[in-house]
Amino acid sequence: AAPTLPALPSSLDAELRGAVAVLTLDRPAKRNALSDEMIGGIEAFFLGLPASVAAVVIAAAGDHFSAGLDLSEMSERSTFDGMVHSRMWHRVFELVESGPVPVVAALKGAVVGGGLELAAAAHIRVAERSTFYALPEGQRGIFVGGGAAVRVPRLMGTARMIDLILTGRRLDAEEGAAAGLSQYVVDDGTGREEALALAERIAQNAPQTNYAVVQALPRIAEANPREGYLMEAMMAAITQGTDDAKARMQAFLDGRAAKVTDR
Ligand code: 1HE
């Protein structure tokens, strides 16, 4: 049977484009503010990815990637509910970061608060020039709760994150790229296509290499070097032992594979 994606709430849209699945935040009237419904839908999307999917793009409808947590859902929440809510976001964004395949986020406009937390869980961020980043939690009287305290310092360093949250200031696309928040800056209106092109290229990599990059590399980078080197050696051995790797290396030696200079 043809692969299908799970049913999603109307605030999200999903599309299969060959080996790439595109998830679109589709609540532009509310600047893609992340409601509980959307967080649940993101979870359903990642849990229901067909095995034929080798890479994911997260894009957004409208002018903004995401204005972060849906503040209209917050006022009724008790302290304990807040704890459970934050852990729900952690669970879902962990699926983004450590799911089966690489994820490319196409950013534009506001990438703010929880929107930056979602973006930070992706593996590659492509930012249109319109992108601006901010952590307005200081003005709202709250703290980050979707993993930013762990993931954002990894990208930009703790001091830069402290500056963002204490001052509430914005970084534009170029400043964000220089600080480590995105790996690419592209023209307005092209982010989704650029992210798709990257995802299509990623989908052509050997699955065992993509798996090692998503599952092992972040752990190795944070492990003690002694354990890190051992994990690296195990992943090197596992990947190179596959028939797929042997065939790809032979193809290069026979002059049938792309050279680095062809890319
Ligand atoms: C929202 C939200 C939201 C917009 N929750 N409804 N995030 C923030 O503090 C960011 C708050 N948002 C903004 O600063 C601005 O909306 C934007 C800069 C993103 C966009 O500005 P603009 O002028 O294009 O749109 P707008 O007129 O402000 O918003 C359009 C509508 O979206 C409006 O609703 P409407 O019914 O009056 O049309 C807004 O109320 C609504 N809207 N953002 C709910 N965030 C797990 S912890 C994570 C912690 C956080 O994420 S804190 C950061 C929250």
Structural overview:
The chain is of the alpha/beta class and 263 residues long. Helix 2 links the parallel strand 3 and strand 4. The mean pLDDT is 96. The protein has 2 domains: 12-203, 2-enoyl-CoA Hydratase, Chain A, domain 1 (Alpha-Beta Complex); 207-262, Orthogonal Bundle (Lyase 2-enoyl-coa Hydratase, Chain  A, domain 2), CATH 1.10.12. It has helices at 36-47, 79-98, 114-121, 137-140, 148-156, 158-167, 173-179, 191-203, 207-222, 225-240, 243-253; strands spanning 12-17, 20-25, 55-60, 103-107, 110-112, 124-128, 132-134, 171-172, 184-186. Bound molecules: 3-methylmercaptopropionate-CoA (MMPA-CoA). 3-methylmercaptopropionate-CoA (MMPA-CoA) is lined by residues 30-31, 33, 64, 67-72, 86, 89, 110, 112-114, 136-137, 140, 142, 144-146. 3-methylmercaptopropionate-CoA (MMPA-CoA) (1HE) binds next to helix 2, strand 5 and helix 4. It catalyses: a 4-saturated-(3S)-3-hydroxyacyl-CoA = a (3E)-enoyl-CoA + H2O; a (3S)-3-hydroxyacyl-CoA = a (2E)-enoyl-CoA + H2O. This is Crotonase/enoyl-CoA hydratase family protein. InterPro entries: ClpP/crotonase-like_dom_sf, Enoyl-CoA_hydra/iso, Enoyl-CoA_hydra_C.
Strand content: 5-15%
Q: What's the SSE pattern?
A: EEHEHEEHEEHHHEHEHHHH
- What would the average pLDDT be, to the nearest integer? 96
Q: CATH topology of the largest domain, what is it called?
A: 2-enoyl-CoA Hydratase, Chain A, domain 1
Number of helices: 11
Q: Give the N-terminus to C-terminus distance in angstroms.
A: 34 Å
Shape: globular
Across the major sheet, the strand order is: 1-2-3-4-6-9
CATH C-level of the largest domain: Alpha Beta
Quick one: CATH superfamily of the largest domain?
2-enoyl-CoA Hydratase, Chain A, domain 1
Bound molecules: 3-methylmercaptopropionate-CoA (MMPA-CoA)
CATH architecture descriptor of the largest domain:
Alpha-Beta Complex
- Protein structure class: alpha/beta
Which segments are poorly predicted (pLDDT under 50) over 5 or more consecutive residues?
none
How big is the Rg? 19 Å
Largest sheet features: 6 strands, mixed
Number of strands: 9
Report the helical percentage. 40-55%
